[in-house]
Amino acid sequence: MTSNTEANDELLLAFIDESLHSIHGLADQITAYLKSPSNADSINGVFRTVHSIKGNAGFFGLSAIKRFAHAVENTLDDVRNQKLALTEDLTRALIDAFDRLNSLLQRVEENRYEDTLSPEEISLLERISELSVQASGSSGGEDSLLRELQELALEMNAAGFPESLRWAEKISGLVGNTDETKQGEDAPVPTPEEVLASTYLIDGEDVSSMLHDVADAFIWPADSKWTDEQSTSVLDRLADMVMVCRLKGEGGGHEKIEAALKDFKVLYESPIGVDQGLLSVIWDQVASVIQTFNLPPEVQEPQVVKEVASSSAGDQAAESPSSPAANHAKRSRAIRVNENHLDRFLDDVSALFITCERLKDVQSRMAASEAVGELVEELRQINVTFSTQANELQKSVVALRKVPIRALLSKFPPMARKLASDLGKSIDVHIEGEEVEVDKSLIEDLDSPLTHMIRNVADHAIETPQDRLARGVAETGNLWIRAETTRTHVVLTIRDDGRGIDPTRIRQKAIDKQLMPPEQLYAMSDADVIDLIFHPGFSTAEQITDVSGRGVGMDVVRTTIRDHDGDVHVESVVGQGTTFTIEIPIRQAVLVIEGLLVAADNEQFVLPFENIREVMELDSKDIKTCHGLPMTVVRGKTVSVMSLAEQMELASTLTWTDKLKHHAVLVASKQGAACLLVDSVLGKRKVVVNDLQNIIENCSRIGGVAQLGGGRLSLVVSVPELVKGMAPTLTV
Description:
The protein has about 725 residues and is α+β, with helices and mostly antiparallel strands. It contains 26 helices and 20 strands. A hairpin with a 2-residue loop joins strand 1 and strand 2. The longest helix has 29 residues, at about 340-365.
């Protein structure tokens, strides 16, 4: 689907993003209402979200989404008005509907949207309707028919053909005559022309003149040319209405008009400007307040039937002071940034650090010259200031690339529920920490491992409802996904209340697969045995399915995470559940690192500070060999010893036995630890790292190249890759 302008495309993308975000929490909200029916805020919040999606979908011409959301909205409206009780089965059906709505919106985003409902979606709506009838304790046929007739009338009215208009009028009249009791809060809002023809009172005082001015400001000009003067008039009239509503004590009225005022101001200042359709959205907000004012007894409120295709944004704001529109000023602002522009900007920031290094180099050369000695201090001060500014700028730019981890986690609840449903199971998914911000690239790296783990929970961990009831727990399983950050890591916890991992069963499977001798397995602790689920090719599944059982998955999870210098751990108790904990370093957008500059065979290298544990002098007599490999003991732990020059394949013929003492740096990563022998340690540096992976093949031990002062280059050592291929050693 394409839009007429780039601005409209931006609006559509913003609508999709906002809708996908809001859908994410609906399952928890409606479950909370099921457990506590007195919690009206939960069901009202669900209704407002679906209502908003329906209206905006209509505005963008997404009629299938509008129809689907409208049907769900009707059921939610009956629930919140206590016309039917929310049952467990109806709750499950509504959660399925939220997942389906999520899928429909994603298809729009991916340009795969078809403007018709699938048989599965129609079947789901029919199931919701049947469950609603059962929950209401009545046939429900009349209300359902009236709603269908009303919707048909609106659709026919929108078609614009003479015959359609005639039938729409007849159907609307039928609905109006049959359902007079619904002319309260559901009555259509008056048009500006109808307001101009009516008289209104607030607490007995005639405020018609003020409301007429407001209505007049909203009338679209005959020549279809909206001017800045008209926008200013709308803003002024709405401000006057806020004052009157506040002074006259209309309950909530001033807050609703304030929301409309803010919405119009955002519209007016946007690249699109004001058009007739969007203006009608704002008017619906205002008119919903006007129709609550008292009309004189001799004046009857006009009865009209008209389509409000995009009333959702206004109705949502008017319905609650805490709605997104009302809280627009409080909500953090977001901006779409083209990633190519962002990357270019990051390169510019990186250049600042190179300049810093050049300034340091000039400063050091000037210090060696007596002729310009008095300029050294001034240059030093400039360099300190420049370095501080560059640091702050770099931090700000890093924040630009960060996105809420919600972008990753939001896909898992519908995925887990669908998979569980396909397997004849029921599962509730609870998300915590979705606002945690991480770099966008980390989101991409975590997608595949987490998908494996969530699928395993649905397939292996959560039992069927019958098995859970036999175990004495609720038939619906639970999955908790929690995200948090430490100073250096993102921590993800995936916990379930399923059957747990039985170490006895794992031992037997390991014996059957001959992973290791039985006596060694029986000597291992239960925790170590459970950790075997990460062994390549290991699986406890009794049969191969489309989901799992092929022995591929958990080993991929650990391998992927360790490739990013992270790790994953598992804890499990039989009959209580399993907890996986993933720790992965926080990724920075601009790879500016603190490093230790060292020399080896007349070359300079940078060792990342995050991998350095200790700098020391090492005696040759303290280096021993084991199976031909040099080893040493550092603080009671045995680690391998390696020459940095040898690892970088330099031409040096010297060995560690040729010197009595060595400069050494103890480095460590998730893959292990090692003691690197170097010629000298030159000091701490902050450097910008440029990647070489796409330039030079087979350079895994090189983490990049850094530019130092004076235009010199230095290779950055990839410590994880350096120690990965070595024999296992104790980490420090």
